[in-house]
Specification:
Length: 347
Amino acid sequence: MLLKFLQPYLADTTQLAYQQHRSTEDALAHLLDIVTNHLDINAKDHGRCIFIGLSNEFNTISPTTLCNQLQDTSLNLAVLNRIYDFMTNHPQKVLTRPIICTYHICRNTTRFCNQPFLFSIYVQHMPKPSSGNFHLIKYADDTVFIELLSKNDVSQMDIAAHDLAGWCHDNDLFLNVSKTKELLLCNLRDNPVHNSLIIDGNNVEQVDSFKYLGTVIDKRLRFQEHSMEVIKKARKRLYITKKLYAMRVSGPLRVQCYTTFIECIFLYHLSTVFGHPSAMSRKSINRVIDLAGFLGGCDFDTIETVYERVMKTRCLRLVVTGQTNPVFVFDQLPSGRYKSVKARVNI
């Protein structure tokens, strides 16, 4: 009920969560589109990504600060008072049979179902540097700063990190440096050298790969590590199908087991990352699918066929809903037909 009233007041264009027809795949596609377009212009350019890590972010929201932000909008006063009352005077108790503890009044916390959405409103004024080629992508509490740099450019990321740390301190958020990671994306054999980023006196770790929204991004954007992780996870779940096969369970149930527990692993972010891994990685995925087909007693679609089906469904949804997407951009011909999907040079 509250979400219906609050949805119109999320006006953050960099926030892709809680938006109609948006998902984690859009956030990943947006990140890859920004970086790859920059790398395609000049092979010596690179991108500097900082994945921000916050500690206990949903439960450290300041009710006063949040309500002051909402008070500047036209939100109904009764709804605003209800949110503030729930966040500051919410009683709870813990039951451990046969002992029941006394009620405890929760203060300065948002322990209810809309806390991720309220957090998205809370951070919609997160500062982004006005100077330099910076981009900011947020998906609920997953935030990434992207700085696009050429060969002789001087990075301004340290200034951005200092401003972000100050903003978090002013808004009662704890910026966890140990969870914050830096990833350089480039085509160069030798990584560009940057001074280690320092936040609150602590160095931010530079990594060669990072799992962003469930997908492992490596510094060369080849997604080999992600492919291996997908294959490993799918092989583990094949154990269920093997047990059903040994128990001589009916074929339709084994097929249902594959589509429910295994195929969903291949489908996750498939339309965004399919073009990056090598042909050998795809063959490895197809071998897992062939083994699942043997155990299921039928032939399942190869990863290439699944990709075509996913792309057709996704493109049709974009046309019907009129949705704009950073990767899936259509050019309309004079006849009214759509020409093609935007592509990029393979790196």
